[in-house]
Automatic annotation (TrEMBL):
PROSITE patterns in the record: EF_HAND_1, EF_HAND_2
Keyword Metal-binding: yes
Any one Gene Ontology BP term: post-embryonic development
InterPro entries assigned: EF-hand-dom_pair, EF_Hand_1_Ca_BS, EF_hand_dom, Myosin_RLC
SMART domains per UniProt: EFh (SM00054)
Domain EF-hand, chain residue ranges per copy: 56-91, 160-195
Keyword terms, alphabetized: Calcium, Metal-binding, Repeat
The keyword Aminoacyl-tRNA synthetase is annotated on this UniProt entry: no
Listed name of the protein: Myosin light chain 2
């Protein structure tokens, strides 16, 4: 009897001819069904994050995901993370595990894990304190030597070109001795995201 009710509900939803109903049916249980039609649908919906990586990278992430998913339920949870750290010989605190799990907007399935990696790679998840600490390493008595910073930007990490540094420096206040006010720079960098979201918040 319960099965009949389920079938009736599925048929009521599309209210169109049979071919449309067939197309809509696999979309609903795409996560549960392993049909080729369902998996094609899943790939299409997650294509944005998948297109950011090469097939080789996706395969490597998939392998890593499977190693981390100790209970093999398709979701990386707190216990999976704890087991992963244990296998590496490192004890993780409850807070560290909670922080890692809370980075994701939902349960950490494979697509969610790829999204987290993509955000990290694009620099999208830099917290304000990371930005502040980075620039404070160049700070001397409230000022940053612009030439020293230029050298660092063009030498280490994701290297800036001379044009990119010039473009960034156009946005900053640099005094006649070539120094940047550290606090003004930090305020400019950390307030920009809020300004974009809330119009002219500053």
């Amino acid at each position: 009897m319960a099965d009949k009710d389920k079938k009736v509900k599925k048929k009521k939803a599309p209210k169109e001819e049979a071919p449309a109903e067939e197309a809509a049916a696999p979309a609903a249980p795409a996560g549960e069904r392993q049909s080729s039609r369902g998996s094609r649908k899943a790939k299409r919906t997650g294509s944005n994050v998948f297109s950011m990586f090469s097939q080789k990278q996706v395969a490597e992430f998939k392998e890593a995901f499977q190693l981390m998913d100790h209970d093999k339920d398709g979701i990386i949870g707190k216990n999976d993370l704890r087991a992963t750290f244990d296998s590496l010989g490192r004890l993780a605190t409850e807070k560290e595990l909670d922080d890692m799990v809370s980075e994701a907007s939902g349960p950490i399935n494979f697509t969610q894990l790829l999204t987290l990696f993509a955000n990290r790679m694009s620099g999208g998840s830099d917290d304000d304190d990371v930005v502040i600490n980075a620039f404070k390493t160049f700070d001397t008595e409230g000022k940053i030597d612009s030439e020293r910073l230029r050298h660092a930007l063009m030498t280490w990490g994701d290297k800036f070109s001379a044009d990119e540094v010039d473009e960034a420096y156009d946005q900053m206040e640099i005094d006649d001795k070539g120094f940047i006010d550290t606090q003004k720079l930090i305020t400019m960098l950390t307030a920009s995201a809020e300004d974009e979201e809330g119009g002219e918040a500053a």
